[in-house]
Structures are given as structure tokens and as C-alpha cells.
Design brief:
14 strands; globular; 18% strand; alpha/beta; two-stranded antiparallel sheet; binds magnesium ion; binds 3-isopropylmalic acid; 36% helix; 10-stranded mixed β-sheet
């Protein structure tokens, strides 16, 4: 039986909100649009592309073509605008997130990012690091909810470093708070202690409204999945986590259909490799989500497969693969473009409410894997080793062919 790719929610309905219809769209705003392309005039969306650094430009160029084709088959036009970001922007303009890039992103209907960073800028001062540009972008777009699905596809179960019976069937979603906590908390900085020693310090801080809004996103998502939400914190030690647990518990009253549990982060890290199938939806703060989502991604075999969506209360969402810029393989046509292609599917589903076009892409990725196409990171004997471009072409072919009923 063909696998279904539950990128995020079981139902095809959007989890908690949808972005407004494209400004250029001739159609009235509606919460969910079912594309019946035949009679309707084409819809048009503006997409800001941020290829970034390393393998970013390679995977974005492939994903752009897939997005274009899937859109056109559903009566959707895209206007793409490519802007510099990260190291590329540093080289071009001296800053990692130029104002023009942020403003283009804010005006777009959705933003698709490749990856940022590289050896060249590693030693830069903090405000001149590519990563700082990414944090500024998240803050500037106010995308506080980061959705990171980790699904073990039957086709790739052997790529997992875990035993087959542990990895098989894992299908979880990490909902990470993205614009608060220790990443942004003040005070922060460098200084000296009473002994005159140099110190570095940061602040883990959460306000009630920040916890409440991420909690609601997570409960909505859990409700559309298997109805289980595990909140991960360190409430045995940290005050910010104590408030986190208190607020998550309070919000749970509005979601009686969702089964809520709490887990300390050290235990969660252990449980993820011990028995990952116990998890459905995980909600956690910025720093724990950063760490646990990398760990969860590895259960699936390759970080090169996993997409993400970052959403705010309104305005464009930011969609990006979880992987980094992989400077060691950049420019060699070796990158796996599937995480970015699947991020384009999340863009369609969560960012634009275009669920049919999203489904086309998800199915095409499964079809391509079923046909045995594999980039190096997911290769196993008996399959066809391809580069980034060829993988992209294979996906394009599958997007173009009728959606197999079994998927
Ligand atoms: C991620 C990355 C970023 C983060 C870095 C690049 C700033 O690790 O998206 O998980 O820490 O959030
Ligand atoms: Mg990370």
C-alpha cells in the first residue's frame, strides 16, 4: 500500500488560520479554497524567494519549478521575486538581512527560503552573521509558530539510524515557539563577573500571551492529527517553564478532545530515540524545539527530507527546509531538494490554502521515491543515485502525471 505523506495534519483543512488571499487575486477571500481550476480565472500569488547560501540556490531553483508546475495545473500563477539573504546578502550589501529583502518578504503572500550560512562568515561578529539575518526575518515577519513534521516514509525506513521496528510508522509534529524565549530574551550580552572574569549571558523569558498563542496553534494541530499533545519543558528547574506548563494546562480546558501530557525536555530527548511512536504533536519553546526537531529529523533518516512552516497571526508565512546550507557539497549538484520541495507544499497548504496543489507535490515526491530516485543522503543499494537537478526533474514528471488514486 502506498504511504501517505502526512506532512502536518490529518485533515486537509488548514490547522488554525490561513493567510489572506493574494492581494492580486481576483477572488474574494475565503478560508479554504478548493481549486476547481477549470472555470475560474487564474489566481495569482507573489512569492519572495530567498535562496541564501551553500546549497540554498540549488534547492530553491528546483523547488521553484515544482511550485510553478503544480500551481499551473491548479489554475494558479506565481510572481517570484528573488532577494538576497544571509551570507549572500552580507557579500552584496554588508548586512545579512537588507531592508529591501525584509520589506519584499513582508509584502509577499509567502516566503520560501533555501538555507543560510557558511564557513566564510562563521567568524563574523554576531550582528554580521547570516544566522542573525534569519532571526531578524522571523522577528520581522512575526512568525511565532514553527511547524516541523517528522514522518518516516516506508520507502526510506532503512535510512534511519534507529532500528527498523523503532523508526517504522513514526509520524510526529514538533510545534516550536519561534520568536521568543532565550533566542530573543533580554538582558543578554557579554560582561565581567565579580572576579573580573568574562561572562556571556542570555535570558529565557516567556510572557503569558506568547505561551497562549503557541499553545492554541499546537492544540489545533493536535486536534487534526491523532489528538495527542505533549508539552515539553523544564518546569522542575526553570521559572519560564513553570509558567509555560501553567498556561498550557489552562488553555487545555478549551480543547477537551485533545489529550495533553507534559514531559521534561531531558526525558523527551531520550524518549524520542527510545520509542518515538509515542509522540503525535509536541509543543515546546524556541531552544528546546531547535534541539528536539533536529533529533526528530534524524529518526526519519535524513534531515534532507524535512520541510518546515513558520506562521504568524497574519501576513506571509516563511517556509524552509530544516537542513542547513551544507557548504561541503554546495555547487556540486549533490543536494537533496526534497525538503525544499516539501516546504513548497507546506507553503501551498498552510500559506495559501491551496490544498490541491500541495497534494500534487506531496504525491509527486512519494511517486519519485517509489520509482527509486535517491540523492546521496538517502541512497541505499538497488536504487538510482541522482543529483539535485535530476531529482527535481523526476519530481516534475510526477507532478505532471495524473495523481495515482492509491496515494
Ligand atoms: C533552525 C536553525 C536556526 C535556529 C539557526 C540557523 C539560527 O538551527 O532553524 O533550527 O537556531 O533556529
Ligand atoms: Mg536548528
Amino acid at each position: 500500500m502506498a504511504a501517505s505523506l502526512h506532512l502536518n495534519v490529518r485533515s486537509l483543512n488548514a490547522p488554525f488560520h490561513l493567510k489572506p488571499v493574494a492581494k492580486q487575486s481576483p477572488r474574494p477571500a475565503s478560508s479554504i479554497r478548493c481549486a476547481s481550476a477549470a472555470a475560474a480565472p487564474p489566481k495569482r500569488y507573489s512569492i519572495t524567494l530567498l535562496p541564501g547560501d551553500g546549497i540554498g540556490p540549488e534547492v530553491i531553483s528546483v523547488a521553484k519549478n515544482v511550485l510553478k508546475l503544480a500551481g499551473s495545473l491548479e489554475g494558479i500563477d506565481f510572481i517570484f521575486q528573488e532577494m538576497p539573504m544571509g551570507g549572500a546578502a552580507l557579500d552584496l550589501t554588508g548586512v545579512p538581512l537588507p531592508e529591501e529583502t525584509l520589506s519584499a518578504a513582508q509584502k509577499a503572500d509567502a516566503v520560501l527560503l533555501g538555507a543560510i550560512g557558511g564557513y566564510k562568515w562563521d567568524k563574523n561578529e554576531k550582528h554580521l552573521k547570516p544566522e542573525t539575518g534569519l532571526l531578524q526575518l522571523r522577528e520581522g515577519l512575526k512568525v511565532f509558530a514553527n511547524l516541523r513534521p517528522a514522518t518516516v516514509l516506508p520507502q526510506l525506513v532503512d535510512s534511519s539510524t534507529l532500528k527498523k521496528d523503532v523508526a517504522e510508522g513514526v509520524d510526529l509534529m514538533v510545534v516550536r515557539e519561534l520568536t521568543g524565549g532565550i533566542y530573543f530574551g533580554k538582558p543578554r550580552g557579554f560582561g565581567t563577573n565579580e572576579k573580573g572574569e568574562e561572562i556571556g549571558f542570555n535570558t529565557e523569558v516567556y510572557a503569558t500571551y506568547e505561551i497562549d498563542r503557541i499553545a492554541r496553534v499546537a492544540f489545533e494541530i493536535a486536534r487534526k492529527r491523532r489528538g495527542q499533545l505533549c508539552s515539553v519543558d523544564k518546569a522542575n528547574v526553570l521559572e519560564a517553564s513553570m509558567l509555560w506548563r501553567k498556561r498550557i494546562t489552562a488553555i487545555a480546558a478549551d480543547y477537551p478532545d485533545v489529550e495533553l501530557s507534559h514531559m521534561y525536555v531531558d526525558n523527551a530527548a531520550m524518549q524520542l530515540v527510545r520509542y518515538p511512536k509515542q509522540f503525535d504533536t509536541i509543543v515546546t519553546n524556541n531552544i528546546f524545539g531547535d534541539i528536539l526537531s533536529d533529533e526528530a529529523s534524524m529518526i526519519t533518516g535524513s534531515i534532507g527530507m524535512l520541510p518546515s512552516a513558520s506562521l504568524g497571526e497574519s501576513g506571509p508565512g516563511l517556509f524552509e527546509p530544516i537542513h542547513g546550507s551544507a557548504p561541503d557539497i554546495a555547487g556540486q549538484d549533490k543536494a537533496n531538494p526534497l525538503a525544499t520541495i516539501l516546504s513548497a507544499a507546506m507553503l501551498l497548504k498552510y500559506g495559501l490554502g491551496e490544498v490541491n496543489a500541495a497534494k500534487r507535490i506531496e504525491n509527486a515526491v512519494l511517486d519519485t521515491l517509489n520509482k527509486g530516485f535517491r540523492t546521496g543522503d538517502i541512497y541505499s543499494a538497488g536504487n538510482k543515485l541522482v543529483g539535485c537537478k535530476e531529482m527535481g526533474e523526476a519530481v516534475l514528471k510526477s507532478v505532471d502525471s495524473p495523481v495515482p488514486a492509491a496515494m
